[in-house]
Amino acid sequence: MRVQIKEVNQDDKIIIRNIGEEKIYGYWTYFRHELTSGYAYVVPYEQSLEKLIPGCVISVETSPSSIEGFRRLRPTEKTGIVQPQPKLGDYWIQGMIQQVIQGEAGGIDCLEIVVGEATFVLDSDELNGDIHVKTGDGVAFEIIGLQLFDEGL
User: Fold this and answer.
1) What is the pLDDT of residues 56-75, one digit of tens each?
2) I need a labelling partner for 87 at 20 to 30 A (CA). Which of 65, 107, 130, 146 fits?
C-alpha cells in the first residue's frame, strides 16, 4: 500500500524486532492514505531515515502489534473501512478475506484480508477461535499498534 509521510518524529522510536545483534527500529509517523490518515510506527527501508521525510510517498507492508475483536461481518455491514481509533496508532478494519492459507493439519494457518489496496495478514491465533471463515467473507477487527514497513520500491 502506498502512503504519504506527513510527519516523522525521529526521537520517538521503538525496537520492532531484533535480528541477531541488529535492532530494527520503527519511528512514530503521521501518514496519509486514500482510505485513512493517522499514526503508525514506520520501519524505514534498510533502516535509513534519509528518504523518510515529510511529503515522500512510500510503498509499505502492514503489520499489527496485535489484533483484537476479530469477527465475521453480517451481510449488511460494509467492507473497505480503515478507521482510526481514539488511541493513536490503533485502527478499526472492515475488509474482505482474499485468501485462506491452510496449515499442515488442514486448519487455517493465516488469512489475507484486503481493504482497498491494503493487505493485512492475520495468523490463526488472532482469529478468536473463528475458524469457519472462507475466501470472500467480510471480517472486522481492531489493529493495536499499526506498523508500516517501507518496501523500498
Assistant:
1) 999 999 988 899 999 999 99
2) 130
